[in-house]
Amino acid sequence: MTHEHYERFRRLLDLTDDYLARGIRRKRPQRADSSRVASDTRASQKEPAHEAAHEAAHGAAGLGRQSAQTASERPDLSAGGGDRQAAHTALQQEVTACTLCPLHRERTRAVPGTGVLEPRVLVIGEGPGADEDKQGLPFVGPAGRYLDDWLAAIELSRTENVYITNVVKCRPPGNRDPLPQEWGACNSYLSRQIALLQPQALLAVGRVASGVLTGSSDGIGRLRGRVHSYEGIPLVATYHPSGVLRNPAWRRPVWEDLKQLRAIISR
Ligand code: URA
Fold it and tell me: What digits encode the pLDDT tens for the residues 211-224?
């Protein structure tokens, strides 16, 4: 067995171990491996440590190797990068000062969104909870940490290639579902974020976000498991991380949805 075969086999064992332990992939320290040469020229993209394991387990190409190719197919934003940054800052300020619906009266802070401005994936949740309302950032509580684990399992992160936001930007009292007039008022912010960020794919987490983005009143169990389209952008719907924390039986379908998402952005 060559060193490379050994490494692939060891990564496959790690992956299997992760599935059995938690249903998602854990981040492990990257081991030095002189047989692999990073071909990705984008400074912000690290070559995934587990690419070989993914290929062995799922037959899908790794994101790190795909990214140089995909980047060349996407519009060159280097010239417009400053514009995008400025437009993003203006939009954030608009959301922060928004009074379009009654939710603004009870908020501590509005939560416009966070992440990179050229994301592969835009994650869309329901609305800020108590932690998010305090910090002004989306998905920073337990559900957010779990969401970060999901993203890491497919080589994504909010600091490298993801942007995260919600259908409503202010906390609904008592974490109730946002009302149609509330997400309706916020809708222009979300559609402008999508237009500005031009993600390769959208990931809607939970019934509310999935319903708003697909326009369907079906439950999440019916909306997940297929690829939707939002204004031409592929949209994957899955369970909400807080729901999965309460119901471990949903981990397996979430993993299927994440693999689907990963296949879309690896094309
Ligand atoms: N749940 C959500 O849907 N969004 C957040 O930002 C946090 C928890």
Answer: 999 999 999 999 99
- 113 CB near ligand 1 (under 6 Å): no
Q: Which helix (H) or strand (E) holds 70?
A: helix 63-73
Q: What is the rounded average pLDDT of the residues 13-19? A: 47
**Mutation choice for ligand 1 from 107, 123, 124, 126, CB with most ligand atoms inside 8 A:** 126
Half-sphere exposure in the Cβ direction for 56 (13 Å, CA): 17
Task: Identify any residues that bridge with 238 across adjacent strands, giving them in sequence order.
Answer: 205
| Lowest model confidence (mean pLDDT) among 54-63, 146-155, 218-227 | 54-63
- 19 burial class (0-12, 13-18, 19+ CB within 10 angstroms)? middle
- Residue from 242, 244, 246 whose mutation best tests the ligand 1 pocket (most atoms within 8 A of CB): 242
Domains of the chain, first to last: 3-73 (no CATH), 81-265 (3.40.470.10)
pLDDT in tens, 66-103: 232 333 343 343 435 789 999 999 999 999 999 999 99
What separation in Å is there between the alpha carbon of 143 and the centre of ligand 1? Answer: 7
Q: Which of 4, 1, 3 lies closest to 52 in space, CA to CA? A: 4
Which residues make Cβ contacts (< 8 Å) with residue 70, sequence separation at least 6?
A: 200, 265, 266, 267
pTM: 0.73
Distance CA 70, CA 25 (A): 24
- Tell me the best of 103, 109, 131, 132 to mutate to test the pocket of ligand 1, counting ligand atoms within 8 Å of each CB and taking the most: 132
Sequence-distant (≥ 6) Cβ neighbours of residue 79 within 8 angstroms: none
Residue with tokens 């400053």: 82
Q: How far is the CA of 49 from the centre of ligand 1 (A)?
A: 29
